[in-house]
Amino acid sequence: MEAEEHVTVVAHGALSGERLAEVSVRASSTVAGLTLAVQEATGLKQLQLLAGSRPLAGSETLAAAGLGQGASVGVVARRTPPVATGSADATARLWDSASGECSQVLRGHHRGLNSVAFSPDADRLASASADYTAKIWCVATGACLATLSGHAHYVNSAAFSHDGRQLATGAAEACTHPSQMRHQKGAAWVWDVEHCSCTLRLEGHDGYVNSAVFCRDGRMVLTASNDTTARLWDLAAGHCVQTFSGHIDYVISAAFSPDDRSLVTASDDKTARTWDLASDRGCNQTFVGHGGEVRGVAFSPDGASLATASKDRTAKLWSVAGGECWRTLIGHRGPVHSVSFAPEGKEVLTSSLDRTARIWDTEKAACLLSLQGHTSHVFSACFPYW
């Protein structure tokens, strides 16, 4: 078998210019992989890599970042990233991920929060609520910057585009009678963040839209629905271009891989599935092992692992390539509702109906911090973008 090509990259202090390390990584690696190599070589735990003055995202491939043989990257120290939680107690909270201390309580919603998500620069936080609105908050001050109104029912999710200019919300449509709840339709809404205006509604699902997320270039939105499908939408055309069928119960969460070549779905049928976007093969892999509904799912920054959150009170870490579970995170006293990877991929954050969120070491499957303070279910928790 032919050996995989490696490249040598030099890391230097972005401010001092001092040469810090020379590392060798696979040419096919991502910036997250390069960051890990630089961390190991320098002993620095929290750092940001720069190409010139541009911060490099962990999900970028080295090729996309322009880092070939002999390339040089700048290194700056980075403060510990904040984390955010959203709860049925109608508040969002911001936390120091090193100490576990709550730094802000964001009040303004009139009903419980279903979802929270940072903007790419981590200066803003979006929240989605059962009060039929989404809100955008200032992370530094805790002030509400905007309220996005117009939904006719619960807003289940909110997510920024990767340039921070758009927001996608997933929601239910109005229901006239309780008997219609199980088959209630839903839609995703695309918003212009600057003007707080809805620019597009993506309609076609025959059930609640539980999540809606952008691909990296912002041209596509991926939705997950109670109609047991996920759908891919072309924003320029305004219609669905691909439907992913195979789950036998509600699809609660869906996410793009870091390179946008595949996606993952999580379902109440107790499984997660990966799907190939570059072919018509359909489902690549089914991840079986949870004893309860799978409510949340996320790719690691390098795309090699998945994390799932389940009503069986656990989160699990999986190999994307092989489908094997390589860690089970045990400790929550209630169903686990969401899961998020830290930018470096070494930690995951979970939220639970036990009123807490937890930060875990992925290698040791050990709980590092329990974030306590909410007075009801914690439906969502997230790290900043990577």
From TrEMBL:
It comes from the Eukaryota. It comes from Alexandrium monilatum. This is Ubiquitin-like domain-containing protein. The lineage of its organism: Eukaryota, Sar, Alveolata, Dinophyceae, Gonyaulacales. Signal peptide: none annotated. It holds the Pfam family WD40. Keywords: Repeat, WD repeat. SUPFAM superfamilies: YVTN repeat-like/Quinoprotein amine dehydrogenase. WD repeats lie at residues 83-105, 106-147, 202-243, 244-285, 287-328, 329-370. Coiled coil: none annotated. InterPro entries: Quino_amine_DH_bsu, WD40/YVTN_repeat-like_dom_sf, WD40_PAC1, WD40_repeat_CS, WD40_rpt.
